[in-house]
Design a protein that fits this description.
single chain, mainly alpha, 0% strand, globular
Length: 314
């Protein structure tokens, strides 16, 4: 009986050490689960209290719930050593931030639409599609490469494929960070100077920097599976758990549904006010109204609380 128990304990210890490359803390996983559960509730309250509830905002609430489930599975995995719970926690904790980044992509598209401009070939409608597609494509390249590395015959090809995925992910996200800075401070935009949009850029910059640091951490962890970064839980806790947790806190404090106006006309009026004064604002609003009357449609002034994103149709 004792021998059987010892074999079970030895198997669980061996499995956890091999799967995580360190012995994960059950207490830490429990604390993370409680924190993310609290964030989920806080995110829901923040959304319900906002004046507008665009559909893309609900992505954040769903992601917070999925992170809670992921860390709950991590608790179960550390206790049972089951492969199924390891897979659940690994997939959710790895993939959910991709959906979180989608919210930033959508908001940048909204700001581009408000400014009435595009950056090179990136039109407002293409921003979310291009960057989200790059994230998904990079994830699949890494996943396929990792699976090929399990086979000794295809290990080299798998590592090269996974490295391509890592480079694609970091490259596109670097371009996205520069896009945010260009819209905020670049000639022709300078939208950070518009008081109404400053809190939006605070949220975009803080969350994007944190997600960028997380991507760098994940890259290093992937490239050296037995190195210091991959073999110490505190690194995971700081650059993944804590980083994404702060992102959710930022989204709760700077709620896009509260910060961004509910109609396209209001967004365009804010930009016009800073670019050409009150007269241009009146002309902008009148032009929007005339367009609605001429077309016989209410789509131009639709609330982004109904559609999720006034300028985008992804």
């Amino acid at each position: 009986m004792n021998h059987s128990h010892n074999v079970t304990v030895d198997y669980k210890t061996h499995f956890l050490q091999a799967a995580f490359h360190y012995m994960p803390s059950t207490d830490l996983a429990i604390a993370d689960t409680i924190l993310y559960a609290a964030i989920s509730v806080g995110m829901l309250v923040s959304i319900l209290r906002s004046s507008h509830r665009p559909r893309y905002i609900w992505i954040l609430f769903v992601c917070a719930c999925l992170e809670t489930i992921g860390y709950g599975a991590r608790v179960e995995c550390t206790g049972s050593g089951a492969l199924s719970t390891f897979i659940v926690q690994a997939v959710l904790i790895l993939v959910v931030p991709i959906a979180i980044a989608l919210v930033n992509y959508i908001v940048v598209g909204i700001l581009l639409e408000a400014g009435g401009k595009q950056v090179y070939c990136l039109t407002p409608k293409r921003v979310a599609r291009v960057f989200f597609a790059s994230d998904v494509g990079a994830f699949f390249l890494q996943a396929i490469g990792a699976s090929m590395m399990a086979n000794e015959a295809s290990a080299d090809s798998g590592q090269n494929l996974a490295l391509i995925g890592v480079v694609v992910q970091l490259g596109f996200f670097t371009m996205f960070v520069f896009l945010i800075l260009y819209i905020a401070f670049g000639n022709g935009f300078r939208m950070y100077a518009m008081a109404e949009f400053k809190p939006v850029f605070h949220a975009l910059c803080l969350t994007s920097i944190l997600m960028y640091l997380r991507n760098i951490y994940r890259t290093i962890e992937f490239l050296d599976r037995h190195g210091y970064v991959a073999s110490n839980e505190w690194v995971f806790s700081v650059f993944d758990t804590f980083a994404i947790l702060v992102c959710f806190l930022a989204y709760s404090f700077w709620n896009f549904g509260q910060l961004l106006p509910g109609t396209e006309a209001e967004l365009a009026a804010i930009v016009a006010k800073y670019q050409g004064g009150d007269k241009d604002v009146e002309m902008c609003v009148e032009a929007q109204g005339a367009q609605v009357l001429a077309s016989g449609k209410s789509g131009v002034l639709r609330e982004h609380g109904r559609t999720g994103r006034p300028p985008l149709s992804i």
